[in-house]
Amino acid sequence: MDQNKTCLEVALERLEERAIKESTYRSYLKTLRLLNLEDFPYEKLTPRILNQRLSMVLNSNTRRKHCINLRASLGIKLPTPRATPKEYDLPTVRELHQTYEDSPYRANAFAMLYAGARLGEAVIKQPIKGNVITFDRQRNQQYQVTSPKSAGPVVVPSWYADEYRATPDKDFERQHCSVYNGLVRWGVKMLGTSVNPHMLRNAFCMSLVNMGANPRILQSQMRHHHVSVSLQYYTQARQTDIAAMMERFGD
């Protein structure tokens, strides 16, 4: 490899040989820019230097993302820290339903709350048969239709299946930023707290847990490749839940 090449030049060469999504490609290059590595000589790069740059990133999950990006774009082996699950103080499904039932974003919010849709999947109408929605497409931030992160069927309540089927396609078709910002603003207005798309998907998962769904049902409904993802990142033990359980301990 040419000793005069910068990290950016090496990354561009490596990524050109890989079939990756445009958003992933941009994410890799953004990491180089944020860590001030674009013009750094590749031959002088060491794991120690990379760890020094990464240590400046305070958020552990963001640091983990940059580490993964560096491994992929530069081919340097770095230990990848485990992701830290983000815990939310979630409103109940009833509260979330009431919050968004009369909002302009009802179709998008309910797709997340009652079918576990991700943001890109909630801004396009999915195929539905009976009470099963099959997620097989998403709309990316450039408003292009692409394959989703994980495809598969999700069983939904019958009343919601009827509503989803009857909702015009155009009611789903909004830009990512419009839906995201709209959900946040509406949540603050109606609940007094910020609600984002991931929280709605998380509420869907937690409701399944609270109803006693076993790990395999949880994995299927969340469309995770591995059940460990469902259990580790989408089930949270809130302090109030733990305290309530311990009050019954020994009864």
Can you describe this structure in just a few lines?
With 251 residues, the protein is mainly alpha-helical. It contains 13 helices and five strands.
Structural account:
The protein has 251 residues and is mainly α. The chain contains 13 helices and five strands. It has helices spanning 7-16, 22-34, 47-54, 60-74, 93-100, 106-115, 119-122, 158-166, 176-191, 197-210, 215-222, 227-233, 239-247, and strands at 128-129, 132-135, 138-139, 145-146, 152-155. Strands 1-2-5 form a three-stranded antiparallel sheet. Helix 6 runs parallel beside helix 10. The chain is globular, with a radius of gyration of 21 Å. The relative contact order is 0.10. The mean pLDDT is 87.
Q: How is the topology of this model organized?
A:
Layout: H1 7-16, H2 22-34, H3 47-54, H4 60-74, H5 93-100, H6 106-115, H7 119-122, E1 128-129, E2 132-135, E3 138-139, E4 145-146, E5 152-155, H8 158-166, H9 176-191, H10 197-210, H11 215-222, H12 227-233, H13 239-247
Antiparallel strand pairs: 1-2, 2-5, 3-4
Task: List the keywords.
251 residues, two-stranded antiparallel sheet, 5 strands, 52% helix, mainly alpha, single chain, 3-stranded antiparallel beta sheet
| Structural class determined from secondary elements | mainly alpha
Q: What share of residues are in beta strands?
A: 5-15%
Number of helices: 13
Oligomeric grouping of the chains: single chain
The SSE order reads HHHHHHHEEEEEHHHHHH
Q: Which parts are unreliable, with pLDDT below 50 for 5 consecutive residues or more?
A: none
